[in-house]
C-alpha cells in the first residue's frame, strides 16, 4: 500500500474548526517555506503585504490571522489556500513515528504539492461563484501628461478569481474597477494600452505604491513618493520625468485627490 492509500484508509472523519484551519495552514506554510529555503519568508511577507512581523507571529503560533490574511499569504506562495489546508492536515494526522510520514517527507517538493492536490482530487471544476465580475470603465488614467477621459461608462466586464481578488482587497471587492492606461511614463511597469485593476476603497497613500490620482479635471497613474512639504507622483520611465506630478502641500489652491490604488496590471494581445 503506498503512502496516499495508507493515509486515505487511516484518516479519521474530521470536521475542523477555524482554529484547526489556522493550525493546518501554519503547518503547511512552515513546511513550504523551509523547503524553498533562504529568503522565502521575507519574500512572502513582502509580496503578500502582510509584513514580516505579522507573518512571523502567524508562523510562531502567536496569531492565527484572519482567513483573508491567510489567503493573501497563500497567493504570495502561489499555492491555492485549500491545498495548503489539505497539506497541513495531512502532515498533522500522520504520527511522527509512522513510516508513511517519512515516505511523505522523502517525496520531492512537486510530489508533495501533487499529493496535497490529490486529496481533493485536484482542483474542482470552476464555477461562477469562484469568479467576480469587474466593470471596465471608459476612464483612461494617463501614464503621461494627464487625461481628460474620466467617464464611469462601462465598456466591458472582466472576470477575476474570487479568492485572489478577496486576498488583495481583504474581502471588500465592491469598488474595484478596471481601466485602460494612456501614455508611456509608467513603462515598463505599465505600458500604453495596458489594463489596470484599481481599488477605490484604498486611497491611503503609501510610499512606493502606484495610484490613480486626479489633479483638476485630469487623471494620472503614477508611483507615490514623499518629499519635504510635497507629494511626488512619478513615472517609472525616468526618460519622461518632465511628466511627473508634484503637489505642494502648502498650496491650498491645488484641486487634487487620490482616486484609487493600483492592484494589478495586465494587457490584451
Question: What distinguishing features does this structure have?
Answer:
single chain; 269 residues; alpha+beta; Umud Fragment, subunit A; 2 domains; elongated; disordered N terminus
Per the CATH scheme, the topology name of the largest domain is Umud Fragment, subunit A
Kindly state the number of beta strands: 9
CATH architecture of the largest domain: Ribbon
Molecular shape = elongated
> Helix coverage percent of residues?
25-40%
**Whole-angstrom Rg:** 23 Å
Low-pLDDT parts are 1-14, 119-128
Strand content: 15-25%
Specify the biggest β-sheet: 9 strands, mixed
**What count of domains describes the coordinates?**
2
| Number of alpha- plus pi-helical segments | 9
Q: Gap between N and C termini, in Å? A: 49 Å
Structural class: alpha+beta
CATH superfamily of the largest domain: Umud Fragment, subunit A
User: How are the strands of the biggest sheet laid out side by side?
Assistant: 2-1-3-4-9-5-6-7-8
Rounded mean pLDDT score: 79
Task: Summarize the structure in short.
This protein is α+β, with helices and mostly antiparallel strands and 269 residues long. It has helices spanning 3-10, 18-36, 40-48, 52-60, 67-77, 81-93, 99-106, 109-119, 162-169, and strands spanning 131-137, 154-161, 176-180, 195-199, 210-215, 218-227, 230-234, 245-248, 256-266. The protein folds into two domains: 3-119, no CATH class; 128-266, Umud Fragment, subunit A.
